[in-house]
């Protein structure tokens, strides 16, 4: 029992000599240090959240690219097919145009000949000369009629 008392005494001296505080292991922090710790904690939380968002965005981008790549290939194939089809249609239209050219000429030639005949049969110089001659005759006739009318209205002349 004596040994126990001695051990208890030594423990008491060690604790009081060290000024140990068993209830408060750390001294209370000043308010500035508390604010700093809170800011650091918030910053770390924000940093972690940003990192998570970055990872989510990367994953979303990867998934989107995986979905778009096959669509892009399909669009490319459709575009290439449309170009090939356009070229083939142009060749076919050209072939049909060449094949139909004699028939078109056969059908349109009578109309062209008829138009040419009408153009040749109407001699515009003769027509012009006839119109001028008739208009001159009409003018002379009108002048004669005006003179006769003046003579009837004005007996002094």
Describe this structure in words.
This protein has 157 residues and is mainly α. The chain is 87% helix and 0% strand.
Query: Into which percent range does the helicity of residues fall?
Result: over 70%
The gyration radius over C-alpha positions equals 58 Å
- State mean pLDDT (0 to 100 scale): 83
Report the total helices.
Answer: 3
Globular, elongated, flat, extended or rod-shaped: what is the shape? Answer: elongated
Helix and strand run: HHH
**Sheet of most strands:** none
Uncertain stretches: none
Note the gap between the termini. 182 Å
Briefly note the structural class of the backbone: mainly alpha
Estimate what percentage of residues fall within beta strands. Answer: under 5%
What's the number of extended β-strand segments?
Answer: 0
Keywords: Signal
Signal peptide: 1-20
Protein name: Apolipoprotein A-I-like
List the helices and strands and how they pair.
Layout: H1 2-17, H2 31-121, H3 124-153
């Amino acid at each position: 029992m004596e040994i126990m008392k001695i051990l208890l005494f030594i423990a008491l001296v060690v604790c009081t000599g060290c000024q140990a505080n068993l209830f408060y292991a750390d001294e209370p922090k000043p308010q500035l240090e508390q604010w700093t710790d809170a800011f650091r904690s918030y910053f770390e939380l924000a940093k972690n959240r940003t990192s998570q968002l970055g990872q989510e965005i990367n994953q979303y981008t990867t998934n989107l690219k995986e979905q778009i790549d096959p669509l892009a290939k399909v669009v490319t194939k459709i575009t290439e097919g449309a170009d090939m089809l356009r070229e083939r249609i142009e060749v076919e239209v050209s072939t049909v145009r060449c094949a139909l050219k004699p028939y078109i000429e056969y059908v349109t030639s009578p109309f062209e000949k008829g138009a040419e005949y009408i153009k040749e049969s109407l001699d515009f110089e003769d027509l012009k000369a006839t119109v001028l001659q008739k208009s001159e005759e009409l003018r002379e006739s009108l002048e004669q009629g005006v003179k006769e009318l003046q003579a009837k209205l004005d007996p002094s002349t």
